[in-house]
């Protein structure tokens, strides 16, 4: 069922494997930036030793978080620390998943390769949308990285306590040299986390967009099937088209024609007609003697068969069934690989929104202005917006899969199935039974990724925002300095 999506045919294998090339390029760049070698299928022993560097860095980060919890932190430190460390936990899980589930990554690569043979190339509009989305992901990652780095420069004077994020170190290490070592270490962690988050966003989008593209392909293939034509009727109509060609390439004669045509015809093949004389000798393809002029056209030696979606509905539905089976396998592999990172992404977003709003409202409602307070609020707002934008992208793409699968089921239901042959009706019924099952991306089976999630998050945050404003207003109103 190749090239059924309605796009122009394309012989370039690279254009047909756009999603696969996007994933491989992302893993290659991330593998070098994070020293993890995510693009290597069978890593050697030295690469496993090199992977210990980012894993050890994350271990030190979480060790600093544990020291912060046992050192009686302030309320502001707890709020900032919790919102930050959930993001680090998410990126650390992405690193571990990509390293330990290399077989699942290879399986996804093979599935994308198999699906690329069942549809036409991406048109220019589709490629442009994919590249714009990737550019937007890169822009968000760069802004996030700049916010992290600019945080201590904007509100601090390079003194202890104004690191990029809250991290407790032993008192014996609180020296100017140790401070700069700690700053460099946090710079490495921030770059590592932003790179891993960007890699997961790009790969996750490429996998989901591939599902959307192929669901559109199978829907268009269903719409192209002519239910009123069986295989025999399609064959007859093609025979008539060949006869029309023969009529157009007519033989013009004047006077008596001293020869006759002999034609042989087999099923599925039409041979070139050859002029012969009465006694059986072959006449040359040039004007005959006398007043007879012969014009012989170039008749194709073999009849070109019609594509299966026009020739036989049963064969077309069988090919569509195979295509849809590959799509469902791809969705299942995506859920198996990305379930935990997607769940942690939603958890990190919710925690960052709630704790960021709590910290921002606390700073705004303070009776005494603190230097750097406005920078704090702006940083929190930008940080919240970035996380909310990521969840919006996830929900939008996941909702597109649900909608395109529903459109595919609707196209099957709209078929004039009573006019289909018996074998085609059985195949259509089998496809509808498969398509009736929910096809969606889920977060470790907890909930489905859909557009309604954005509304749920917005309503959840709005509810707690009202509660936090009332609570903080009453607390600050009882302070002595507020009078």
UniProtKB/TrEMBL annotation:
Residues 98-125 form a coiled coil. InterPro entries: 7tm6_olfct_rcpt. GO terms for molecular function: odorant binding; olfactory receptor activity. The keyword Coiled coil applies. It comes from the Eukaryota. Keywords: Cell membrane, Coiled coil, Membrane, Olfaction, Receptor, Sensory transduction, Transducer, Transmembrane, Transmembrane helix. It is found in: Cell membrane. This is Odorant receptor. It comes from Amphibalanus amphitrite. The lineage of its organism: Eukaryota, Metazoa, Ecdysozoa, Arthropoda, Crustacea.
């Amino acid at each position: 069922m190749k090239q059924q999506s309605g796009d122009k045919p394309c012989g370039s294998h690279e254009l047909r494997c756009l999603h696969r090339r996007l994933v491989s390029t992302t893993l290659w760049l991330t593998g070098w930036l994070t020293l993890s070698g995510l693009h290597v299928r069978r890593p050697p022993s030295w690469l496993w030793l090199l992977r210990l560097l980012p894993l050890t860095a994350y271990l030190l980060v979480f060790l600093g978080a544990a020291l912060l919890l046992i050192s009686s932190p302030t309320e502001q430190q707890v709020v900032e620390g919790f919102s930050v460390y959930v993001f680090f936990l998410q990126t650390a899980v992405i690193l571990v998943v990509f390293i330990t589930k290399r077989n699942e990554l290879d399986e996804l690569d093979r599935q994308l390769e198999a699906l690329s043979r069942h549809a036409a190339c991406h048109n220019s509009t589709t490629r442009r949308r994919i590249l714009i989305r990737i550019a937007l992901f890169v822009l968000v990652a760069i802004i996030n990285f700049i916010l992290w780095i600019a945080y201590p420069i904007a509100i601090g004077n390079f003194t202890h306590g104004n690191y990029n994020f809250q991290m407790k170190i032993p008192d014996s290490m609180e020296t100017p040299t140790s401070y700069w070592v700690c700053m460099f270490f946090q710079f490495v962690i921030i770059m590592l986390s932003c790179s891993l988050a960007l890699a997961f966003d790009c790969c996750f989008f490429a996998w989901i967009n591939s599902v959307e593209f192929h669901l559109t392909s199978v829907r268009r293939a269903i719409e192209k099937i002519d239910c009123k034509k069986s295989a025999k009727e399609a064959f007859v109509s093609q025979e008539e088209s060949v006869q029309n060609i023969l009529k157009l390439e007519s033989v013009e004669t004047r006077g008596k024609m001293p020869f006759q045509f002999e034609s042989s015809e087999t099923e599925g093949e039409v041979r070139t007609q050859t002029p012969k004389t009465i006694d059986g000798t072959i006449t040359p393809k040039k004007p005959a003697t006398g007043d007879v002029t012969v014009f012989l056209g170039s008749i194709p030696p073999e009849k070109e068969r019609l594509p299966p979606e026009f020739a036989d509905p049963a064969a077309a539905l069988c090919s569509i069934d195979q295509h849809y089976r590959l799509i469902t396998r791809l969705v299942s592999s995506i859920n198996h690989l990305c379930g935990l990172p997607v769940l942690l992404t939603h958890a990190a977003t919710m925690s960052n929104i709630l704790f960021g709003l709590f910290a921002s409202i606390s700073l705004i409602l303070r009776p005494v202005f603190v230097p750097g307070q406005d920078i704090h609020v702006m940083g929190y707002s930008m940080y919240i917006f970035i996380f909310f934008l990521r969840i919006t992208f996830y929900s939008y793409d996941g909702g597109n899969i649900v909608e395109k699968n529903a459109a595919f089921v609707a196209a099957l239901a709209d078929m004039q199935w009573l006019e289909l042959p018996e074998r085609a009706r059985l195949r259509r019924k089998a496809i509808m039974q498969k398509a009736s099952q929910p096809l969606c991306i889920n977060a470790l089976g907890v909930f489905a990724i859909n557009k309604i999630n954005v509304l749920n998050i917005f309503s959840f945050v709005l509810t707690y925002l009202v509660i936090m404003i009332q609570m903080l207003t009453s607390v600050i109103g009882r302070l002595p300095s507020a009078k």
